[in-house]
Structure formats: structure tokens, C-alpha cells
Amino acid sequence: MSLEQIYTSGTRMIGNRSVLLSGFILTLLLTTTGFAEDYDKGHGGDGFRETAMNYENRAKKYEEKGFSDIAYIYTRMAEIKRHAGNLADQGRWDDIDWSEYEELDEKLTKIYESMKHKK
Q1: Which residue of 59, 88, 104, 105 is 20 to 30 Å from 30, comparing CA positions?
Q2: 20 and 58: one domain?
Q3: Range of the domain at 67
Q4: CB 59 within 8 A of CB 74
Q5: Residue 56 near residue 75, CB atoms below 8 Å
Q6: What is the pTM of this model?
Q7: Are residues 50 and 106 in the same domain?
Q8: In total, how many domains does the chain have?
């Protein structure tokens, strides 16, 4: 039996059940997507907390090197990320305010640029 014969015989055997099977697959996909969304709502802040830990490590390194201004910025950015993580865990994504974070990021960029020009 050729592949074409197997395919056409399978299609005939399924008949109207293919519509039912398609509906089942669609339902299954939507259900698993719902689980993924619920998981994201409960653990959405994990990435923020990971970034906060990285910022705290950077802050410590810059403090040890005598760059307290950079250390302060990284410390504050870590605090903002942790707060965002807590809000994300609660599903309160719209309550996250990034305005101070963006200002600090701009300051940090300017400091790094000025350090490059001094070399």
C-alpha cells in the first residue's frame, strides 16, 4: 500500500471525526495556553529578581573599586526590579512604574560614556 493510499483511506475512515479531532486539538492547545498564563502570573517576577541579583553584584564590585555613584545606581535599580518582581507575581503588570529606572539607566549610560572618553 502506498503512502497516498494510506492517507486517503485514513481520511475516509476518519470522515466527520476529523472535525471533532480538530476541535479537540484546539481545545487542548487553548487549555495548555491557559495553564502557561497562570504560571506566568504566579512566577512572572523571577526574571526581575534575577536581574536584581546581578545589579547587586555589580553594585558591590563598583563600591569596592571606589565608584560609589555607580554602585548607588545599581543598588537602586535592583530595588526597583525587586519591586517589579513582586508586582508581577501578583499579576499587577500595569502597576509597574519604570520612570525612575529609565532615568537611572540614562545616568548610568552617561557615566560610562564619560569614563570611555577619559581613557
Answers
A1: 88
A2: no
A3: 46-118
A4: yes
A5: yes
A6: 0.63
A7: yes
A8: 2
